[in-house]
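Reply to dn_fold:

You asked what the input looked like. This is it:
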Amino acid sequence: MTQKEFATYIRYGTRTDSTTFPDAEILSIANPIKDYLAGEIEGVNEDYFGMPQTTDLLKTDTTREYPFPPEFLNRLKRIEANLLPDDTYDDNWVTLNEVDMNFHKHTSDEATIQASFGWDEDSAFYEIFRGSIWLLTGEIEDDVTAGLKLWSFDYPADIDDLSDDTDDMSVDPSTTTLGFPKAFHQLWADAVVIEYKSNRDKPIPLTKREERWEFYLGRALDSIKNTNRDHAVVTGVPSEEANDDGYEY
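and this is what came back:
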């Protein structure tokens, strides 16, 4: 659906028009539902809303804390950093390891961090605390443009305009924001209709399809499980030993 088709479908289902159900009211209902559906989709296909992102890596005398992006879906796959301990080389991308402060037992002063952590994949770590990434590495002496890379997951972008009749809502609005999967457009619109009908002073009866919304959601979620079919299946075979009849396989 385009945004305009989305609004038209909703108004048809609610028997309203742009005066009795204005765009602003549709959006106030639709965007929270979109976020709920994104969480359900991510629950069955964890990589669906993947969005690699970069930010500048700052000198350690500036900060070690990097807040998550506002669209962050509370999931993180990997963190990479281009650490620059000295001037002898300028390209040292490493994968950081997660650690919990309850286990590393070091104090958080800068001198102790620098003495306890380093710049390679065996000694560079990060901690997640209060919605931020805290880098636990050796000293970073210079700012590095786009030197911190998050393999993270974002909520699809909010819709803020219902007049577009060109682009399908599944199309990513930009290189850094996500569209919403086409298989869920009708369910999304139906959920807005249900919310509207259920919250009238005198609730409006639902159609049979609307009453079975959870069922259709389950079917749609099943359709996006295991999107990648290119998986190898490794099995064992009996050995040539006389007493190996293959039973355990």
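The longest helix spans residues 23-44.
Hope that clears it up.
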